[in-house]
Amino acid sequence: MIIGAYGRLGRLVMGAASRRGYQVVGIAHRQHANSNLSPVQIKDMLDLTSADLTGVNAIVDAVGAWTPATEYVHTAGLAHIVSLLRGTPIHYLKVGASSTLFTNSAHTYTLQELPDYYPDYMQDLCNAHAEGLAILQSANDINWTYVTPTYNFDPNGQSTGTYHVTGEVFHPANSGNPDDGQQDYITYADFAKGMLDIIAGNQYIRQQITLFTGNNPHPTQRY
User: Fold this and answer.
1) Which of 3, 68, 76, 117 is the most exposed place for a label (fewest CB within 10 A)?
2) How far is CA 119 from its chain centroid?
């Protein structure tokens, strides 16, 4: 099951999963014109029921929300899915936010706190992601993985077919300027491949991980 099936990432995951031979169902909160994705069920994630999960082995939660009116999907929406998953073996993969990553080995500071990376106007969204992660971290009875793209997450870049996996610590540029960052780039296409590999291997249960491919090819561009 792909929640957020009509989003850019959701479409890529659905397509890649179908090519691997998975039976896939997409969930979208509204119909999109000129879409040939199939099958897609039009339903708000808060309206999903246990019956909707019959036969589902894994869920990719790829919902995107960028405004105060929609950020609830990262908190209330996530909490609702968690409630449905209790007592099931379903693997739930939530597409996370790099703002939640720690920037030191003591795990006392996060990337959200660096204003050149996450300015004031993004703090509400960062807080929503942090709250959602905290909900998952308290859910010791479900099989979740919080899969975080690294800082520069490019929707339009080409697939390289490779990626690297690291943990919950991100190393920002020493200058504090994101333009100087290293190992801070991945495309949606490579991220989608990583998500499906995690599902296939049933890996990283109850962990936060980060996927990246390398350095941003356009250092002054944000994604």
Assistant:
1) 68
2) 21
